[in-house]
Amino acid sequence: MRRVPVLAAAAGVLAGLLIYLYLGSLDGPEVSVVLAARDLPAGSRLGPEDVRVVTMPGRAVHGRAVDPTAVVDRYLLVDVVADQMLLEPHLAPTGSPGPVSVRLREGHAAFFLPLSLSRGLGGAVRPGDRIDVVFVPRSRDQGGAFVLVSRARVLELRAEDGTVYRGPGDDRGLPLGLLLEVRPGDAVNLAHALESGSLYVALPGPGAVPVPDLTEPEGLGTSGIEEGDAP
């Protein structure tokens, strides 16, 4: 068993040597590339402290590597890890209006859903999750609880100061709510529901059966909210 760490260390040294020899064998001039200086989540606006520029043999550089002179102040579209080479598909175009709008799919809108921990899975929701939003009417005359929006994509968690919440290790307070990608009709119905009842988040598993589409006004009418109540 004592030989295992030694063998692992030797394998690591050999791998590093092979990479060094491979890079040294590449012909052509060196070029500058941009690496992430630390782990960064999607939606981050890149500053000088978030990236570092290194030189590599040109033949070892991805064809869509970011121009080092055109990276600061652009928004990340995906999560990146420290020392990852930044590529153009990772970033929003220069001058994009913001980190949220550039990540929305066509025909969708962003909606902020304020949630307490007790109604938001105790903080277990993470960006990229697909969630169901359950509506509980305030009045019993409106019927029982039902799924109002199904499979909404979570874009971000927001902290109490309005900034992106990074997770349990974040020291800027508890998450204030979720920024969701929904259809415009979903946004209208969610806003109405916030004023007329309570909303809870459910996280369906991979084998969960999709719920019926209840996001149109007529769907709401059949689920306990009268059509005339929809704005």
Summary of the model, kept short:
The chain has 231 residues and is α+β, with helices and mostly antiparallel strands. It contains three helices and seven strands; from the N terminus they run H-E-E-E-E-E-E-H-E-H.
Strand percentage, roughly?
15-25%
Q: What is the count of DSSP helices, taking H or I runs of 4+ residues?
A: 3
| Order of secondary-structure elements | HEEEEEEHEH
Instruction: Indicate the radius of gyration in whole angstroms.
Output: 24 Å
The neighbouring-strand order within the major sheet is: 3-6-5-4-7
Number of strands: 7
The amount of helix comes to 10-25%
Largest sheet: 5 strands, antiparallel
List the helices and strands and how they pair.
Layout: H1 3-25, E1 30-36, E2 51-57, E3 109-114, E4 130-137, E5 146-159, E6 175-182, H2 184-196, E7 197-202, H3 217-222
Antiparallel strand pairs: 1-2, 3-6, 4-5, 4-7, 5-6
What does this structure look like?
With 231 residues, the protein is α+β, with helices and mostly antiparallel strands. 18% of the residues lie in helices and 24% in strands.
Please give a handful of descriptors for the protein shown.
disordered C terminus, 3 helices, 231 residues, two-stranded antiparallel sheet, five-stranded antiparallel sheet, alpha+beta
